[in-house]
Amino acid sequence: MSLSALLPLAVAISLAGSPGGSRLASGIPLTRAPLPWGAAVMETLQRSVQLQPIRVEDLAGAASVASGAASATAVAPARAQLAATYATPARATVPYIQRDLGRLWRLTVPASAHGPTPRVTATVESLRGEPGKLSLVGHEEISIPVLLLENAPVVRADTNGTTVLEGGFALQIPSSALERAGSYGGRLVLRTEGY
Amino acid sequence: MSTRFTKGCGRIGASLLLAGAALFGSTTASAQNAVVDLNVTLSPITILYYFSTVNVNVSSAAMAGMLCGTGTPSAIYNTSAANCDVGATGSLAATGGAGGLTANGNIGTSPGGFNVAAVPLTLQNVWAVRAIGGSSPNTTVSVAIGASNTLTLNGAGGAQKIVISNPTVSTSPNTSGNGTTAVTFADPGLVNAQPGNVGLTLDLTNATTSGVYETNASGTGASNYTLTVSGT
């Protein structure tokens, strides 16, 4: 469990306000054992995600794209000159680049938990805190919009009766927003809901 | 007045009750947040689009226009584009004889300003570039004659041929190097591609028969010009 996951975890447990809350003084749970007071626990499976770089192959398949044969009828725009005009060979690029972030979170729900099924939601923030964007590192005033897609979580039951959910997200970046090469950064803020 | 006051108190009471339930009424409700850092690199990208085969149909009207320019056809010559109005001849001195009068206009047999050995041909929009980043904010496209500079009638390799020379590239609007073998322009980005042209000089001296002139009989094979993109 990463440090970034431990800190919010401590806050979450102290907010639970359950009768068994006094036992929190013993510290933050270090294992994924069922928590006796019935609270689900989220942990992050990755502290930092370095996505595969966006390359020309993502947009056009190759650096040079042949468009086959083209035909046109020449005209004489002026004396002793010929010119033929063709439709542009440029093809549309893919509308967006998608990167899978892999499994990012694990939610451990004790058998004693009841109520709505818990879920984890996420938002992306740029380095300047702008929602739904990533910032160009070194020029944080420049950002690109991103769309976060939720992957269906994998659910399994532990032998001790707890339910473990693991999930992740995919990131979509519109090609039209790619105007500056460089390194883009931001934060993925995970939140639990529904328990 | 008193009625309204009573209702107002009722709303306040209800709000407090709901807040109390949120804070103390549940033993499991809570929220947990976690943060994961995200990083992705957008590499410098340059994409060159081009036609692998370019066919040009030079019609008789285009040939006539090339020979005659865009002068207005006169009523005397009808309005066919194949006719060539070379302007007024000035006064002709007629001579008389037994058969009548004769006036010689002395029309030229070679059109002015036209060199059959060097006919410029511009192929417009035969390449396009999308580009961002790289060692400079600019992109350069250059052109050179390919493996074959000769097109023969039906690709048969006979005496009837067109020889290609002096390749150039250009863009619109005009940028550095227009009309030379290399043109440089600002990276256009990835949305709107920068279109470009190729200029060739055709030697039509030995193309006296109409037909298809190509590199070989299959119409494929050795290239006639090569484009190169750099600056990424």
Concise structural overview:
By secondary structure, chain A is mostly beta strands. Chain A is 9% helix and 43% strand.
What does this structure look like?
The complex is a heterodimer of chains A (195) and B (232). Chain A contains two helices and 13 strands. Chain A is mainly beta and 195 residues long. In chain A, the strands form two sheets. In chain A, strands 1, 6, 10, 11 and 12 form a five-stranded antiparallel sheet that branches. In chain A, strands 7-13-8-9 form a four-stranded antiparallel sheet, with no helix packed on it. Chain B is mainly β and 232 residues long. Chain B has a domain at 44-53 and 112-232. Chain B has helices at residues 2-24, 60-68; strands at residues 33-42, 45-50, 53-57, 95-97, 100-102, 119-132, 138-145, 150-153, 161-171, 182-186, 189-203, 213-214, 225-230. In chain B, a hairpin with a 2-residue loop joins β4 (95-97) and β5. Chain B is elongated. Classes of the chains: A mainly beta (195), B mainly beta (232). At the A-B interface, α1, β1, β2, α2 and β3 of A face β1, β2, β3, α2 and β6 of B.
Which features characterize this protein?
heterodimer, A: 195 residues, mainly beta, four-stranded antiparallel beta sheet, elongated, disordered N terminus, B: 232 residues, six-stranded antiparallel beta sheet
Which helices and strands appear, and what pairs or packs with what?
The complex is a heterodimer of chains A (195) and B (232).
Chain A: H1 3-15, E1 41-44, E2 48-50, H2 56-60, E3 64-66, E4 69-73, E5 82-85, E6 96-109, E7 119-126, E8 133-136, E9 139-145, E10 147-150, E11 154-157, E12 163-174, E13 182-193
Antiparallel strand pairs in A: 1-6, 6-12, 7-13, 8-9, 8-13, 10-12, 11-12
Chain B: H1 2-24, E1 33-42, E2 45-50, E3 53-57, H2 60-68, E4 95-97, E5 100-102, E6 119-132, E7 138-145, E8 150-153, E9 161-171, E10 182-186, E11 189-203, E12 213-214, E13 225-230
